[in-house]
Design brief:
Elements (H helix, E strand, L loop, with lengths): L6 H10 L1 H35 L5 E4 L4 H9 L11 H9 L3 E13 L2 E6 L1 H4 L9 E2 L7 E4 L10 E2 L2 E3 L12 E3 L5 E6 L11 E4 H7 L28 E6 L2 H10 L6 E3 L1 H44 L1 H9 L4 H42 L9 H17 L1 H9 L2 H6 L2
Parallel strand pairs: 3-10, 5-9
Antiparallel strand pairs: 1-11, 1-12, 2-3, 2-7, 2-11, 4-9, 5-10, 6-9, 7-8
Helix pairs in contact: 1-10, 2-8, 2-10, 2-11, 8-11, 8-12, 10-11, 10-12
Length: about 400
């Protein structure tokens, strides 16, 4: 027989105990998959949400909840928001050190796609974003749509007030069509991989007029859109997205408009607070995952140890046929390590696949892309498990190594 190659014996043992092998591998795989899914999903959520906020350097809204302001404006989560006085918008437009101050007005939708009133500068992100089709809106009654809105250039849109009915979620939402109001789609924006790809952008003056508010311009004068507005004819707005010229200007704006009449913030700071909470949850879940892995490995090795002790006669026969102690030691150790490595590899694939599937589902719910990738944390998790399994596997191998041939043959 071949006494220098332990793999034929390992393979034969696996074939003879196929059920035990698969149960062991699956237990290890599920523990690894849980840890990988928790770590990678938290990272994907963090990166995806941060990317979605890239277009909002400074946000200004009415005094209240900073989290609500960010969730409603950046992620278009429908919530009732208080309105700022129009004078705040007028002061921002006249402020130095900004590229644009864009009012963000909500309230309407088309088949579940939010219709947002703003200015052309925000739609083009200060001129850095050009429509893939058509052009930006230039007058009232025109609209540009995000990449995921199923409307072609030239289509007409009749907005509905409030939210929509979502059959998938089984929720009834208030939705009432604005009769006699229509927008013509004049452009389509490139994909940003955020919830704003589902939005329809129109001049903010249209949103004001549709809801019976003054629109910032002389009704008897030229019907242009956007700034400058007449402060005495400006309606309130729930949020203003400001694009500063520099970091210094951003901090100056935040300080200047942080007061009793308005709330100024950096979305990144609000997200950082949320990330701290997510990080705490992730750490707790990671500890639970690691604890589960340790318990699974110990349980698996204890079961294998009992099995190896019951096979002492087999190993003694191998020794009697000429196999050395090192050979038998290698067989036992390789069986343990092979099971752990196979479980870790399968668990990595299951964890990554599950995280990708979960990200796709969350993307449909949250509206922004959540990139899933495996990093150093996952590698450390898997590597630590394999190394731990290899070290713990030395125990049954050593017990087999030190047992004499006579003791093994006597074992029934």
């Amino acid at each position: 027989m071949t006494v220098f190659n332990p793999f034929p014996i390992v393979r034969a043992d696996f074939r003879r105990n196929l059920l035990l092998v698969w149960v062991t591998v699956m237990l290890v795989a599920l523990s690894v998959a849980t840890g990988i899914a928790v770590i990678s999903q938290e990272r994907a959520l963090r990166e995806g949400s941060a990317r979605a906020a890239d277009d909002f350097d400074v946000l200004i809204g009415a005094p209240g909840s900073a989290t609500q302001l960010v969730l409603t404006t950046v992620y278009l989560r429908p919530q009732a928001m208080p309105l700022m006085d129009g004078g705040v918008l007028a002061k921002l437009v006249a402020a130095e050190g900004i590229k644009y101050a864009a009012p963000i007005a909500f309230g309407d939708n088309w088949q579940g796609h939010p219709i947002v009133g703003t200015i052309a500068d925000f739609a083009s992100r200060g001129g850095t974003l050009s429509p893939t089709q058509g052009r930006l809106f230039e007058r009232q009654g025109e609209a540009v749509v995000g990449a995921d809105v199923p409307l072609e250039v030239g289509a007409h849109v009749s907005p509905a007030h409030g939210l929509h009915h979502d059959e998938d979620e089984g929720e009834d939402h208030d939705s009432e069509e604005h009769h006699g109001v229509s927008y013509t789609v004049v452009g389509r924006l490139p994909a940003r991989h955020t919830v704003w790809d589902r939005a329809i952008l129109v001049p903010v003056e249209d949103v004001w007029q549709v809801h019976g508010l003054v629109h910032g311009h002389d009704p008897h004068g030229d019907q242009h859109i956007g700034p400058p507005w007449d402060e005495s004819r400006l309606a309130g707005v729930p949020a203003i997205a400001v694009k500063p010229n520099s970091v210094g200007a951003a901090y100056h704006l935040r300080g200047a408009f942080q007061g009793t009449n308005s709330l100024a913030l950096f979305p990144a700071e609000v997200l950082n607070d949320l990330y701290v909470t997510l990080g705490n949850v992730r750490d707790m879940m990671s500890v639970l995952a690691i604890t589960t892995q340790v318990l699974v490995v110990i349980a698996v090795l204890m079961a294998l140890l009992v099995g190896f002790l019951a096979r002492q006669r087999q190993f003694a026969v191998l020794r009697a046929m000429g196999a050395g102690r090192v050979y038998v030691f290698s067989v036992v150790w390789l069986e343990v390590v092979s099971l752990v490595v196979l479980g870790a590899a399968l668990g990595t694939a299951l964890g990554w696949g599950g995280s990708v599937a979960l990200s796709h589902w969350l993307q449909s719910q949250l509206g922004f892309v959540m990139p899933v990738r495996l990093g150093a944390a996952e590698a450390l998790l898997v590597g630590g498990l394999v190394v731990s399994g290899a070290l713990i596997g030395l125990l049954p191998a050593w017990l087999t190594f030190r047992r004499s041939i006579a003791e093994g043959l006597v074992t029934a």
